[in-house]
Write a structure and sequence with these properties.
mainly alpha, 3 helices
Length: 64
């Protein structure tokens, strides 16, 4: 069985940062990012390409 916990906290709150750091240090929880967070990170890191249409995609990848 698996359960999910989400922590919403003020990152400028020193006590909240210490509590989260302590929970992470226990090593008994698995951390994962949300799919949306991963997608936004991909965009930020330039891993997402933009095409006008399918023909543009094929042309840019020399598939025509």
């Amino acid at each position: 069985m698996e359960a999910t916990m989400v922590f919403d906290y003020d990152p400028s709150n020193a006590m909240a940062q210490k509590v989260v750091a302590f929970i992470r240090s226990l090593g008994i929880f698995h951390e994962r990012s949300l799919d949306l967070d991963e997608a936004l990170l991909d965009v930020k890191n330039g891993k997402v390409e933009d095409y006008d249409n399918v023909d543009d995609f094929f042309q840019q990848h020399n598939l025509l």
